[in-house]
Amino acid sequence: MAYVITDECIDVKDGSCTEVCPVDCIYEGGRIFYIHPEECINCGLCLSICPVDAIHWDGEIPAQKAIYRTIASEFFEEVTQWGSPGGWTSKYSTEKDHPVVAAWPVSAGPAGKAQ
Known about the structure:
Shape: globular
Order of helices and strands: EHEEHEHH
Mean pLDDT: 92
């Protein structure tokens, strides 16, 4: 299992999580970060530092956010076709997002809160 980033990160992208990840398994999309489900070592450092509580352990993700498991997997396969790059580098940043994230209302901002 891995950690999963959910909608609270959309249009926030604080980046603290990327700085503490010991295996660089957090990749940057256009509006959100994505944790690679196969590269994550479940250390929990990202969870402990996320200022908007956007990160959840896969085994405890709220039911209404379970879709983000699929979103993360599809981001690396169908959206970017990166597969498993083996760790973030500047080569693996993109303005692309999973279609669910791309369709998220900009005016609503993170977690549906007005900006």
